[in-house]
Amino acid sequence: MSTHRLMPLGQMERLIMIGKKSSKHQGFTLIELLVVLSVIALLLTLAMPRFFKSIDTSRDKALKQDLSIMREAIDKYYGDHSKYPDSLQDLVDEHYIRSIPIDPVTESNDTWIMIPPKHEVKGKLFDIKSGANGISYEGKTYDQY
After folding, report:
1. How far apart are CA 137 and CA 141, in angstroms?
2. Three-state SS for 90?
3. Pairwise CA distance, residues 65 & 97, whole Å
4. How far is the CA of 43 from the CAs of 23, 33, 46, 79, in angstroms?
5. HEC per residue, 7-72
6. Structural contact between residues 105 and 132, judged by C-beta atoms closer than 8 angstroms
7. Hey, which end of the chain has fewer CB within 10 Å, N or C?
8. Where are the domains of the chain?
9. pLDDT per residue of the chain (145 residues) written in tens, 0 to 9
10. What single-letter DSSP state applies at residue 91?
11. Non-local CB neighbours of 94 within 8 Å, separated by 6+ positions
12. Residues whose CB is less than 8 angstroms from the CB of residue 104 and which lie 6 or more positions away in sequence, other chains included
């Protein structure tokens, strides 16, 4: 004996019609589209300031890291040669750094400011600073790093 119950014909037609779209609802209305677009615009206005702030803070952190690496290389050069390098290119030539880094704020490797030693020591490069104008997110000017 079969345990199947026979379904009335009207219920079967309704089940089939549920799976099919009726011809009345072919797309979205203009109001529905405007509501969705306004919600997306609202979410973007909340997210964009955070996005740009994270870009600026990462640029500042990259600048600090580059300065730290170059200052460490200058110190190692001085320890090995008993004089300071004459330029950043000397650090590259002697393999203390692979290349002159690009200043992440100015996006150029030509804007670094070389600070000579204060005492009568050989060499021209005692310290290095960024040549970028402006103020970082910490409230310091870039040449204070």
Report:
1. 9
2. helix
3. 13
4. 34, 16, 5, 54
5. CCHHHHHHHHHHHCCCCCCCCCCHHHHHHHHHHHHHHHHHHHHHHHHHHHHHHHHHHHHHHHHHHH
6. yes
7. N
8. 58-135
9. 555 566 565 666 665 555 555 556 678 899 999 999 999 999 988 888 888 888 889 999 999 999 999 999 999 999 999 999 999 999 999 999 999 999 999 999 999 999 999 888 899 999 999 999 988 888 889 888 8
10. H
11. 77, 85
12. 59, 62, 63, 66
- What type of residue sits at position 127? D
CB 67 within 8 A of CB 111: no
- Please, where are the H alpha helices in 82-140? 88-93
For residue 134, give the 3-state DSSP assignment: coil
Give the pLDDT score at 31: 93
Separation of first and last alpha carbons in the chain = 88
Task: Using the structure block, give the residue that is written with the tokens 């219920």.
Answer: 11
User: Two tokens at 140?
Assistant: 């310091």
